[in-house]
Design brief:
mainly beta, 38% strand
Length: 107
């Protein structure tokens, strides 16, 4: 699976949210964000916050943010791809019926 990382952080007294393909947490003081994925600009209604992000970080490929400014980091499946896992309760077969339970017959 390919993952994207959504990083929420404070910058100029505002909360910013950036999505990127690469994240490096090995630096002792900074979160390194590479390969930034900008919001799509082909919408009929433009979100002002998305427009600000595009103007500010549009030409940026790599940014380093101090750890103290980071609020939240999310790991997401790459957009357009989903992962579905079916979980069964203990004692249920794949059909969703309990063991030994008969399937209902149509009338």
């Amino acid at each position: 699976h390919l993952y994207l990382y959504r990083v929420h952080f404070k910058w100029k007294e505002k909360e910013i949210q950036l999505t990127a393909k690469s994240l490096d947490l090995t630096h002792p003081y900074f979160v390194s964000i590479k390969d930034i994925v900008l919001p799509q600009d082909k919408k009929l209604i433009i979100d002002p916050s998305d427009d600000d992000i595009r103007k500010t970080f549009g030409e940026t490929n790599h940014i380093m943010i101090p750890f103290q400014a980071v609020i939240l980091i999310e790991e997401l499946l790459e957009e357009g791809k989903t992962s579905i896992m079916h979980l069964n309760n203990v004692g249920e077969e794949k059909t969703g019926k309990k063991k030994g339970e008969q399937k209902e017959k149509p009338l």
